[in-house]
Specification:
By secondary structure, the chain is α/β, with parallel strands linked by helices. It has one domain: Thiamin diphosphate (ThDP)-binding fold, Pyr/PP domains (Rossmann fold), CATH 3.40.50. Helix content is about 35%, strand content about 15%. The chain contains ten helices and eight strands. It has an eight-stranded mixed sheet, with helices on both faces. Helix 6 (about 185-195) links the parallel strand 5 and strand 6 (about 200-205). Helix 5 (about 165-170) runs antiparallel to helix 8. Bound molecules: iron/sulfur cluster (SF4) and magnesium ion.
Length: about 290
């Protein structure tokens, strides 16, 4: 759903809080992201009765419980697949996925490229803390080799993946990154994702002080660097260059990429309309929709 095409409501961030108490550890970065989610929903004027929050498993996957909305707490790694189905069934609803790096890129890694290439009209907020927190500290796809975790007491043998580069490569139409210590920036980027028609991916660094001793709030604060003011968000090459800064020990913060192309539900609607409407099924119209 394009938030811009439906009636907006005028609610305060606190109106998006549910009755469920927040149970994360003190100092967890997820608290900052949650406050950003409340603010983004308020700023975008999303009607809670037109919102579905979906998650898999993990500390961050508890987030839908804390949001005043419809919600689905699904299987580990399957939030994106369930969200795709929910969006196709109810294109009149806003669909927000809230989950972590292990859930999204390890167990759920098979779903990520397909949501991006299909341009499913959902907003995916990934709480990236470089560890599995709920299961008490295992190495994740975004862990740095220096991190000693329960499963890697001598450090890790793998290089971390680059979520931004991955999403840009597979065709996401809105790609952004922020850090939980800057909830105002997080809120603006999440709002932008909600208002974008298409697959919006927002990677948010979030410290886990309980199990990840190296990716501290200070580390992330020094790591992130605001995207240059003159960055052209429609230039994929420029966005990819920015996304690769992380290999040089820096990470871009802001909106990297934003373009428009038909979404999965728009394409499916056109096909159904074409097949069901008349024997003169207009294939050219479908092909036109698929052109970049
Ligand atoms: Fe946050 Fe880590 Fe505690 Fe989970 S274990 S709530 S990610 S600090
Ligand atoms: Mg994690």
């Amino acid at each position: 759903m394009s938030i811009g095409s439906v009636k907006r409501v005028d609610l305060k961030p606190k109106d998006y809080k549910s009755e469920v108490p927040v149970v994360w550890c003190p100092g967890c970065g997820h608290h900052g992201i949650l406050s950003a989610v409340y603010r983004a929903l308020s700023d975008a004027g999303v009607d809670p009765s037109r919102l579905i929050c979906i998650s898999g498993i993990g500390c961050s996957s508890r987030t839908p419980y804390f949001v005043n909305s419809y919600k689905m707490h699904t299987l580990h790694g399957r939030a994106g697949a369930v969200a795709t189905g929910a969006q196709l069934a109810r294109p009149d609803m806003a669909v927000l996925v809230l989950g972590g790096d292990g859930d999204g890129f390890s167990i759920g890694g098979g779903h990520m490229p397909h949501m991006a290439r299909k341009n499913v009209d959902i907003t995916y907020v990934l709480f990236d803390n470089g560890i599995y927190g709920l299961t008490k500290g295992q190495y994740s796809p975004t862990s740095r080799p220096e991190m000693k975790a329960y499963t890697t007491p001598y450090g890790g043998p793998e290089e971390p993946m680059n979520p931004l580069l991955y999403m840009l490569t597979y065709g996401a139409t809105y790609v952004a990154q922020a850090f939980a210590g800057k909830p105002g920036i997080c809120a603006d980027l999440i709002r932008g994702g909600l208002e974008h028609r298409g697959f919006s991916y927002i990677n948010i660094y979030s410290q886990c002080p309980t199990f990840n001793q190296i990716d501290t709030i200070e580390f992330y604060r020094d790591l992130v660097e605001t995207v240059p003011k003159d960055h052209d968000v429609t230039d994929l090459g420029e966005a990819i260059t920015l996304s690769r800064q992380s290999s040089a020990g820096r990470a871009p913060m802001g909106l990297l990429y934003k373009v428009n192309r038909p979404t999965l539900d728009q394409r499916m609607h056109a096909i159904v309309e074409g097949v069901g409407g008349s024997p003169d099924y207009d294939l050219n119209r479908i092909i036109d929709l698929h052109r970049p």
